[in-house]
Records
---
Amino acid sequence: QWEQDELAKKQKEMDDKEREQAEKRRIALQEEAARLKNLQKERQQKQDEIAAEKERLRQLEEEMARKAQEEEMERLKRLKEEERKRRIIIEEQEALEREKQRLA
């Protein structure tokens, strides 16, 4: 009887140790899962930040291109107006020169 009691006691100790180890492994796995979930969340946040920054830069680039195009159109408009005025002045000078020669 004593041997059976000792055997049962040792079996219970082994079972308790196995349960304790299994519980430790379960807790460790839960902690690892939580850590991985946090890492995934951080990674997603970083990706979202990068995507938002890319979009901001894209919009900025579009705005800069639009402004540059507007400025170029305005510059061309001014050049055309200056050319028109220059032609008028030349035509007036030529008319005056012809009138001068006619009168001479």
---
Amino acid sequence: MFDKYYPGYFGKKGMRNYHKNKQQKFCPELNIDQITKIYLANKENNLNDIAQNRIRIIKNGFFKVLGKGRFSAKPLTIVAKVFSKKAAKKILKAGGTIELE
């Protein structure tokens, strides 16, 4: 009838996920229009990658490249873990290439 008067009414109930990994869906994102800023900022640091016209997004703390904005840089090779369909299409249309890491 009224369960709230019985012991154990208040508190946690239901199923629990004991092996929950809070970092499982951690995927920092970067838009295409910000790639040129990263390219110019890292020119001094990664001379080897700059000579190959390559940008490693993961070294800058991002995993995923999204397609918002314009890709105004020269044809570059962009290395990341995940690309959205729109971002991959824009990069390839501009003459660049994508690599999954």
---
Amino acid sequence: QAGVPKHTSLFPVLHPSSSVAMASVAASQLSKEQKEELLCTYAALILHDDGADITPQAMTDLIKAANCTVEAYWPTLMAKMIKNVGMEGLIKMGSGGGGGGGGGG
């Protein structure tokens, strides 16, 4: 598909027939909602990495190119959150880093 980032090979771990484990949980053990949220997260990260606009349509196109589907509200919700918080801010939140050191006594 023209205009679709090349990273769609990352999505097979969430394909319904996949048994590949992500972290300590196999994709087959995730709920439908968890899989759809991860698909949108991956799509947003791929678009961000490619320097593309993170829009609901771009996310949907990327997810479809990976032969996956999500409920229509997910890309819209994710894109709105990214617009409000910013991708860099969300990445920092998800990384768990940045906590200050404890005070000495």
